[in-house]
């Protein structure tokens, strides 16, 4: 990858994470407002944003195991039934406040990944490890279909066969003006304005 492509790749990653960062920032702000004050304000925001992004660590793991990141990377870090209890009970040893904050940020990431506005849709495996079906919240097609759509494993495997690289996916949806890139930036700016005025 040339240096120009690397810079574009990083900008794309930032834009793809913008919505999760905005949501993490907003949740931290609400938690501090309603259940604060906290001792380390800056740490609390960074902690929340980190947990709002954390499930996508499977993209990094894929990079290590496959040598490249595929856009359909969702794996065990995207299994709410496994991750939420582990994170909650681990962090709760130290702080109930931060345990709740971490779980809310993870939960909002899972919801965000489940709405069908997401271009690498298909939702996530909400019931894993008990079921390997993926579930998606259908917003765009709400009038014609069920609100929650189930995708069986076979259907997901077919989608995954496309094996688009992360860079091509970023170029398609985030490195130009699209619904995804605009919503992400807008959400991030809005959450920063809320930080200042509220
Ligand atoms: Zn994700």
UniProtKB/TrEMBL annotation:
Pfam family, one: YdjM
Keyword annotations from UniProtKB, A to Z: Membrane, Transmembrane, Transmembrane helix
Ranges that cross the membrane: 7-28, 82-111, 173-197
Matches recorded under InterPro entries: YdjM-like
Listed name of the protein: Metal-dependent hydrolase
Taxonomic lineage: Bacteria, Candidatus Falkowiibacteriota
């Amino acid at each position: 990858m040339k240096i120009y492509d690397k810079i574009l790749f990083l900008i794309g990653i930032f834009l793809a994470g913008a919505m999760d960062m905005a949501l993490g920032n907003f949740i931290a702000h609400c938690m501090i407002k309603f259940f604060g004050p906290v001792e380390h304000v800056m740490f609390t925001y960074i902690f929340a944003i980190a947990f709002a992004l954390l499930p996508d660590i499977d993209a990094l793991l894929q990079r290590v195991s496959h040598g490249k990141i595929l856009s359909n990377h969702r794996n065990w870090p995207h299994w709410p039934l496994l991750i939420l209890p582990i994170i909650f009970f681990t962090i709760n040893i130290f702080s109930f406040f931060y345990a709740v904050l971490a779980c809310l940020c993870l939960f909002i990431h899972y919801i965000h990944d489940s709405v069908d506005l997401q271009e690498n849709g298909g939702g996530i495996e909400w019931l894993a490890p008990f079921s390997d079906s993926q579930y998606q919240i259908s917003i765009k097609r709400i009038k014609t279909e069920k609100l929650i759509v189930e995708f069986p494993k076979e259907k997901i495997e077919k989608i995954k066969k496309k094996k688009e690289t992360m860079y091509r996916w970023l170029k398609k949806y985030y490195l130009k003006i699209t619904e995804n890139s605009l919503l992400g930036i807008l959400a991030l700016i809005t959450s920063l304005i809320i930080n200042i005025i509220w």
